[in-house]
Amino acid sequence: MVMEALARLGRSGLAALAGVGRAHMLLAAAIAGLPELLPRPRLLLAQIYNIGVLSVLIIAVSGLFVGMVLGLQGYYVLNQFGAAESLGVMVAASLVRELGPVVTALLVAGRAGSALTAEIGLMKATEQLSALEMMAVNPVRRVLTPRFFGGCLAMPLLAAMFSALGVLGGWFVGVGLLGVDDGAFWSQMQAKLDFRGDVVNGVIKSLVFGVVVTWIALFQGYDATPTAAGVSRATTRSVVHAALAVLGLDFILTALMFGD
Amino acid sequence: MGNGVPDHPATTASSPEPPAAATAGGAEPLVRVRGLHFSRGDTVVFDGVDMDIPRGAVTAIMGPSGTGKTTLLKLISGQLRPQAGSIEVDGLDVHRLGLQDLYRLRTRMGMLFQSGALLDDLTVFENVAFPLREHGRLPPSLLRRLVLMKLQAVGLRGAADLLPAQLSGGMARRAALARAIALDPMMVMYDEPFTGQDPISMGVLVSLVHQLNDAGGLSSIIVSHDVPETLGIADHVYVIASGRILCSGPPAAVSTHADPRVRQFLDGAPDGPVHFHYPAAPLAEELLAVGRRRRW
């Protein structure tokens, strides 16, 4: 009984390790396709459109509301200490350092990542990937590489948009509704927010999240069992694994970037 | 019929001679399979199979569902790797080729998938143009002419602007066939081309396979369990089951073969060497066991 349980545990561990190995090999193969992608920018632009442009609405609306909530909550706390004029820097720092990259990555994993997994999984289930192989076209380079780089490039742009609209949402609530001084809101933000320490680090975070979310989505689709249930499970795994990876990596990156 | 493959009595798995098609006419076969062993987990799919696919002929590989017919096509095309044995296509050992050489060989092999496997975000025209665009830099006007000619050959020139989702099953397979022959391959492999087709679509597909093989100078491998349609166009037939070749030879010889397993397959008998019931304990024993479990 105990031996059987240990054997099951061992088999699961080996399967998980094999999965990690396959995922890394797929990542290497997708990146190796970059030289073939560069002369065909249309393939990349199509994926930036699919992953980025089609996510703009959910990112814009979410960014606006997150910024508005930050404005409200920040005002109530700061006002108790007579520091309501610092609302601008609080909203902007929260968004640029943390909420922009993290929430954008979670939203992209839910909207575009799941779509990528389902698309690749269905292409596998309907033998489209095998058909590419039989046409002497490398499916990883033709299908996965443009999606991978499309996702990597779209994520920082979407995170920037999220943060910008969040700041506007915070301004609308703080300045427009709660009476915080307009000049203080913007000038404190400009003075206290460090371009390298805050903005660049936020961009680096969103780039890392872009790589991880797109990689997980593509791998789950490519590795999916080619059945309806298999694609469904892969899509769920894609979102769950991406969310956990983003939150875990965010802690590590924050500790590295902002720790003393 | 009879594209270089003269009538020949059917051989059985126990025959000491090489496969019938290998000796027919003495020409070098297009595909040569030797000692093929392939397993999935504990399931043995092929257990030492030897097979020769002649050039310029329609070769049918038949057998009940689940006997590894599609797997054999994937092995021939290098999508799967055998545990032992070799497969040569046009003199090249498929599983010893590097990726670039394998892809070069695949440009000379077309494959019609059971589902069609059309790229569903591209129109029929773009699907057929896809391999031409990927493997060459043809001027747009020439590419358009080539694609329209391929579509004309399968009767779908008028459907060039439709998406795969707008096609019927038979039309999708014809469009996929046009794509499979886009690069003018030396051979086309058909995976269950007639399955699930209405009589009209089936007739169209049978006629297309025959015409393409004869007029296009192709070699064709058809994997199928549709007995009359396949025997009607094949020059040479292999019947496989249980990981081995049960018999091979010209359709006339195979269709009169005496092996009970071949007879059951060709006659469509519900019971015989392949049992109707999946192996299980006797029904009474199992029912009583259920009763006992319930009492517990």
Structural notes for this entry:
With 260 residues, chain A is mostly helical. Chain A has one domain (2-258). Helix content of chain A is 87%, strand content 0%. Chain A contains ten helices and no strands. Chain A has helices at 2-32, 34-37, 41-51, 56-80, 87-125, 128-134, 139-177, 182-192, 195-222, 228-258. In chain A, helix 5 runs antiparallel to helix 7 (139-177). The mean pLDDT of chain A is 94. In chain B, the strands form two sheets. In chain B, strands 1-11-10-4-9-8-7 form a seven-stranded mixed β-sheet, sandwiched between helices. A four-stranded antiparallel β-sheet of chain B has the order 3-2-5-6. In chain B, strand 8 (187-191), helix 7 and strand 9 form a beta-alpha-beta unit. In chain B, 36% of the residues lie in helices and 21% in strands. The longest helix of chain B has 17 residues, at 199-215. In chain B, 42% of the residues are buried. Chain B has a domain at 11-108 and 185-259: Rossmann fold (3-Layer(aba) Sandwich), CATH 3.40.50.300. Chain B has 296 residues and is an alpha/beta fold. Chain B has helices at 20-23, 69-76, 99-106, 124-135, 140-153, 169-180, 199-215, 227-233, 251-255, 260-267, 283-295; strands at 11-12, 31-40, 43-53, 58-62, 84-89, 92-93, 109-112, 187-191, 219-224, 236-241, 244-249. The chains are: A mainly alpha (260), B alpha/beta (296). Chain A binds chain B through residues 126-128, 130-131, 133-138, 142, and chain B through 74, 77, 79, 99, 103-104, 106-107, 109-111, 113-115, 117-120, 130-131, 134-135, 176, 179, 183.
How large is the radius of gyration of chain B?
21 Å
> What is the CATH top level name of the domain at 11-108 and 185-259 in chain B?
Alpha Beta
Low-pLDDT segments of chain A: none
Label the structural class of chain B: alpha/beta
Count of individual helical segments of chain A: 10
Give the assembly state of these chains.
heterodimer
Average pLDDT of chain A works out at 94
Please trace the helix and strand order of chain B, writing H or E for each element.
EHEEEHEEHEHHHEHEHEEHHH
> What share of residues are in beta strands of chain B?
15-25%
- Rg of chain A, please? 21 Å
Based on secondary structure, the structural category of chain A is mainly alpha
CATH architecture descriptor name of the domain at 11-108 and 185-259 in chain B = 3-Layer(aba) Sandwich
Put simply, the count of helices of chain B is 11
* Number of E-state strands of chain B: 11
In total, the number of domains of chain A comes to 1
- The rounded distance between the terminal residues' Cα atoms of chain B is 66 Å
Helical content of chain A (DSSP H or I, runs of 4+): over 70%
Roughly what fraction of the amino acids of chain A lie in strands?
under 5%
Principal-axis shape of chain B equals: globular
Largest interface: A-B, 12 and 25 residues
